[in-house]
Amino acid sequence: MARSKSKTASRAEDDVRSSSASRTVSKKNKGAAGFATVSGFRVLRLGSQVLYIRIHQEKDRVEATTSQTRTLFVVNLPTDTTDRHVRAIFAKAGPIEVVQFWDQRPGSVSEDEEGMDVGGPSQEFQEQAGSLTSVATSSDAGKRKGGKKSSGPPAIVPLPPSDPRHPHRLHRTSVSAHVTFLDASCAQRALSLPDSTAWPDAWADIRNAQNAAALAAMDDSHPHGQKKRPGSAGQAALEAGQSVPPLGLEYFISRHRAQRPTPDAITKHVDSVIAHYTWVKEHPQAKGKGGVPVASYGPDGEMLDEDGFTIVQRGGRFGRTAEGGADASGFKSGPAARGSTVRVASKFMTQQENGASGSGKKKSKELENFYRFQIREKKREQLASLREQFEKDKLKVEKLKKSRRFNPY
């Protein structure tokens, strides 16, 4: 009995010692002041994000326009903010027409995309291919009979996007946005929202739909062959191809994989580009009567011949669209386009020669003393002629003096 009592007493002492040791460890993890620490760093949790909002104002315009009165300017948004987050924050204010982030406005380039090719053909190649496609389509338009469509160039298969969050890419720090409501009263209601509100989970519906789809795939009793209509907005968005943008480690893993496309995707893209280029080379624009065939196009869309010279086009009475109309690339597609060639320049030179030989045609007169530089040049020429005449008169007077025939009175 005595031995059993001593054993129980020793066990109790060990329990007390272990509990006290665990308390000291927890105190060490929490730090001297009771704060949680990780590897010597104090953990500071931030549970709020401060946004600054006001009605949008343009500096150039004194009076506020209709779009300004219903546009809200929001500052200090988190980097992972999406269109869904902004709509959820201001959902109580009213319907939103459009949300435009500052770093995603037209013409802006993100830091990740700056200086690198994000996939797909270059802009110059796309513009040139688009102009060639439109010209080829317009030239073949007159050959269509019975509503039959002519075969166009093969489409270019683009590379997959290198950003796994596309089109909801990460923003820069403290990004701003313009939130345009359908009505000006909605913007005023947005200014009257409570000062504190919870950050919305904008992707909860799609996340729930993904979990439900995963459970349905694991369930053996669920019929796999039948397709059900989406029962919620999240299921409809999931079937439309939307997904939750990745964050954290998942984002970096997805980005690493996206920036290294599979050989199959690269092969399809390269084959489509080569096929498109081959088709364009094999189907040049047909030349008109006495015209020059179009070999390629310049950076501004001008037509070039085989030697690289720009082909001059006839303008017509009201410009290029006077006869035959114009296609999407800005060039005429009718008979006037097929007859627009370099021979227009030779015709113009012939008219000038006929005018110079004494024909009754009126010559184009240049405006005199219209610009300041013309007035300055004219005065400079007059002064030079006066100075020259003065020097001539001096020489003449000297000669008369030497000949003793000078009689000033």
UniProtKB/TrEMBL annotation:
A single Pfam family it belongs to is RRP7
| Gene Ontology terms for molecular function | nucleic acid binding
What are the start and end residues of every segment in region (Disordered)?
1-29, 107-169, 216-239
Compositional bias, Polar residues, is annotated for 123-137
Ribosomal RNA-processing protein 7 C-terminal domain location, by residue? 258-409
Coiled-coil region(s) at which residues?
A: 376-403
Q: Which PANTHER family match?
A: RIBOSOMAL RNA PROCESSING PROTEIN 7-RELATED (PTHR13191), RIBOSOMAL RNA-PROCESSING PROTEIN 7 HOMOLOG A-RELATED (PTHR13191:SF0)
Q: Which family does it belong to?
A: Belongs to the RRP7 family.
This protein is called: rRNA processing protein RRP7
The record lists the organism as: Ceraceosorus bombacis
- What does the organism's lineage look like at the top? Eukaryota, Fungi, Dikarya, Basidiomycota, Ustilaginomycotina
